[in-house]
Amino acid sequence: MVMQLAGTRRTPRRWVMRAFTAFAAAVVGLAFLIPMWWSFVNSLRPGDETFSYLNPLTWQTFFTLTPTFENYAALFDTDLARAIGNSLFISLVTVVVGLAICATAAFGLAAFRFRGRGLMFSVIILSFLIPFDAIAIPLADMFRDWNLQNTFFGLILPGLGNGMAIFLLRTFFLAIPEELVEAARLDGLGWWGVFRRIYLPLSVPALIGAGLMLFLFQWQAYVWPLLMGTDRDHIVGPVALSNLQGQFAVDYGVLFAASMILILIPLAIILGFQRYFIQSVSTTGIK
């Protein structure tokens, strides 16, 4: 009887906590959704109507009864299509090659015990704590000396070794039972076989999460492509978006249309793989 009364007392408190959590999540979700929705609505309006309904706020601020796709049609006369293709190529190559490099490095730091392993891992952690933009200018000078300016190799290379991806994969690799590895070694499987047949198949969520990090790093990069891709053949999405702003006038309708396209592509990819990403991040720190 006492246990039933205690359970009854805890139930309202638990219900209140769940309701508060759901309310807080809804508020945070709306805080992210409202600016995106406003941008989408303004991408369907002429540019001269963008700020017409901001003061005071009315229903017309977030809705329009006369949508038009002229802003999206106008993008065909810009470099945005070429830029999106370049961004996709750079990002996909970075994901494929970067995952191979980061997974191999994480495997070495997780499976092998050698002197200086802790120091090396500390340097990797430090690498993603320093903002890349802080080293972009001196790094760009080095790349120019190596004749890598206006080349896809120069745009891709800095994103291949991602410290955060290595940290995520190493943490996931450490959760793999050592008994499984020892059994494979006793059966005559080499270290490369252990990596390819045991670590990689068991780490698909972590690989997808690390791949998303590599993709987003390149997709949203602005300063580095601005320094290294100065011609039209190597322009990327964020730089092309910035170039849509004229010197004396800005067509905000076209600008919002281009922004929505650049947002929807990574958003669709993230939504498609979000459960793998959440699973990979949730396992970070285990063991």
Automatic annotation (TrEMBL):
<dbReference type="InterPro" id="IPR000515">
    <property type="entry name" value="MetI-like"/>
</dbReference>
<comment type="similarity">
    <text>Belongs to the binding-protein-dependent transport system permease family.</text>
</comment>
<dbReference type="GO" id="GO:0055085">
    <property type="term" value="P:transmembrane transport"/>
</dbReference>
<dbReference type="Pfam" id="PF00528">
    <property type="entry name" value="BPD_transp_1"/>
</dbReference>
<feature type="transmembrane region" description="Helical">
    <location>
        <begin position="152"/>
        <end position="177"/>
    </location>
</feature>
<keyword id="KW-0472">Membrane</keyword>
<feature type="transmembrane region" description="Helical">
    <location>
        <begin position="88"/>
        <end position="112"/>
    </location>
</feature>
<feature type="transmembrane region" description="Helical">
    <location>
        <begin position="252"/>
        <end position="273"/>
    </location>
</feature>
<feature type="transmembrane region" description="Helical">
    <location>
        <begin position="198"/>
        <end position="219"/>
    </location>
</feature>
<feature type="transmembrane region" description="Helical">
    <location>
        <begin position="119"/>
        <end position="140"/>
    </location>
</feature>
<keyword id="KW-1133">Transmembrane helix</keyword>
<keyword id="KW-0813">Transport</keyword>
<dbReference type="GO" id="GO:0005886">
    <property type="term" value="C:plasma membrane"/>
</dbReference>
<protein>
    <submittedName>
        <fullName>Carbohydrate ABC transporter permease</fullName>
    </submittedName>
</protein>
<feature type="domain" description="ABC transmembrane type-1">
    <location>
        <begin position="84"/>
        <end position="273"/>
    </location>
</feature>
<keyword id="KW-1003">Cell membrane</keyword>
<keyword id="KW-0812">Transmembrane</keyword>
<feature type="transmembrane region" description="Helical">
    <location>
        <begin position="20"/>
        <end position="40"/>
    </location>
</feature>
<dbReference type="InterPro" id="IPR035906">
    <property type="entry name" value="MetI-like_sf"/>
</dbReference>
